[in-house]
Write a structure and sequence with these properties.
The protein is of the alpha+beta class and 401 residues long. It folds into three domains: 1-79, no CATH class; 126-296 and 363-400, no CATH class; 299-352. Helices cover 27% and strands 36% of the residues. The strands form three sheets. Strands 5, 6, 7, 8, 9, 10, 11, 12, 13, 14 and 15 form an eleven-stranded mixed sheet that branches. Strands 1-4 form a two-stranded antiparallel ribbon. It has a two-stranded antiparallel sheet with strand order 2-3. The protein is flat, with a radius of gyration of 30 Å. The N and C termini lie far apart (64 Å).
Length: 401
């Protein structure tokens, strides 16, 4: 099926800027009717055969360019419960990508070609979102340490405390992407999605975009969500423990109970750029505009720049030798080798500045956790003082670092 314009028959699509179904041909709004075909593999507009993957739920006809929704793959067990509609239009994505590379001198010239940028497509990625209750029992030894010197000795005073925390926490909609085609590290980095824009699922949000349905059941992807929940729960507990120099856990026991699972679709813009024999996919969060991916490095540009600096060195050196009366031919080969070395060092240094996937930690959903402290205890145990020779103390610190 596809959404067709009642006025001109064009393929009407969801426009993130207007938050409405809009005809890109006559600019009419919400003037749509559903056009269906007799076979899900055939485009209902031009009768061309659609290229459908195993998990495709919405695609673009390679013949007429219309966006076709596989309604059968969005019904009953495959119907999403929630969706975050695209908030960023394609034109904005192009500007975000341009801004991402504006300070990079050695990006291939064709990377920002209009022809290539037109290939950017928005796709809805399937997610399972999980609600959890966590009962956390935590016990540790907390130490407050003070040091001072006297003569040739370093004195260390250590005060120990029994630290106990018992907490209940509730986590809502912890996400785990259910697409094997989307790399997990990319999906972790492209987060967070904020749930202010989340809606009950409506088919109209899909028109104009690609989509796939979940690649496996919720149980298959749940380990990622429970791992994230435990990590976030530990962070929440850790935030209640302060003023200790060091904390040594004795008991660290989060009990995670699942409450609810829902199936959702979240938006991602994808730019698949091929340079040489390698593809460099760039991903943009369709809600927040966060850009993640590896930008290609044009070694040809770098070598030309490096060769220019090497040649300038060689030319200036030759002129200097001529002025001083030293025969240039005696130093020709060494100067040439140094010039080549300058070129290679320049390229090496330039390539070290290229940026790849953003090296940030996996986003935690601490803010989604509602926590209650059931029991909190910081009980004093004892204080003891140790003495070390200054030299031995410094050697001990070196060994620890």
């Amino acid at each position: 099926m596809l959404y067709a314009c009642k006025n001109c028959g064009g393929n009407i699509v969801y426009e993130p800027g207007r938050k409405k179904l809009v005809c890109p041909y006559c600019d009419s709004e919400e003037s749509w009717e559903i056009k269906t075909g007799i076979d899900m593999n055939i485009c209902p507009s031009c009768n061309g055969r659609l290229e459908l993957g195993t998990y495709t739920s919405a695609t673009k006809c390679q013949f007429c360019g219309n966006y076709v929704i596989q309604e059968e793959r969005m019904r009953e067990d495959y119907e999403p419960q929630l969706i975050i509609p695209f908030q960023i239009a394609k034109a904005e994505v192009v500007e975000l990508i341009k801004k991402e590379v504006e300070d990079r001198r050695y990006v291939p010239a064709s990377f920002l070609d209009e022809k290539n940028l037109k290939t950017i497509e928005g796709t809805y990625v399937p997610f399972w979102v999980y609600d959890y209750d966590v009962h956390y029992n935590y016990e540790a030894i907390g130490r407050k340490i003070k040091t001072w010197t006297k003569g040739k000795s370093v004195f260390t005073e250590t005060s120990e405390y029994r630290v106990v925390r018992e907490m209940d926490m509730n986590f809502e909609m912890i996400p785990a992407d259910a697409s094997r085609a989307m790399p997990n590290d990319v999906m972790d980095l492209i987060e967070p999605y904020t749930y202010a824009d989340i809606q009950d699922f409506d088919m109209k949000y899909i028109s104009g975009f690609l989509s796939e349905f979940y690649n496996d059941g919720a149980m298959m992807f749940e380990p990622r969500a429970t791992s994230r929940t435990k990590k976030d729960a530990k962070t929440i507990v850790g935030n209640t423990i302060k003023d200790y120099t060091m904390v040594t856990p004795v008991k660290d026991s989060p009990n995670v109970q699942r409450n609810q699972i829902r199936y959702a679709l979240f938006p991602v813009w994808v730019y698949r750029y091929r340079y040489g024999s390698k593809e460099y996919p760039l991903y943009v969060n369709g809600q927040t505009g966060k850009v993640v991916g590896e930008i290609p490095f044009d070694y040809g540009k770098a070598y030309k720049q490096g060769a220019l600096w090497g040649f300038l060195f060689f030319l200036v050196s030759c002129l200097s030798l001529k002025v001083t009366g030293i025969p240039v031919w005696l130093s020709f080969l060494p100067l040439l080798l140094i010039g080549l070395a300058i070129m290679f060092v320049f390229v090496l240094l330039a390539s070290m500045t290229k940026k790849g996937k953003k090296t940030v930690d996996v986003t935690t959903y601490v803010d989604a956790g509602k926590s209650r402290i059931l029991h909190q205890e910081d009980t004093y145990i004892r204080t003891y003082v140790t003495e070390h020779n200054i030299k031995k103390y410094k050697n001990m610190l070196k060994s620890l670092t």
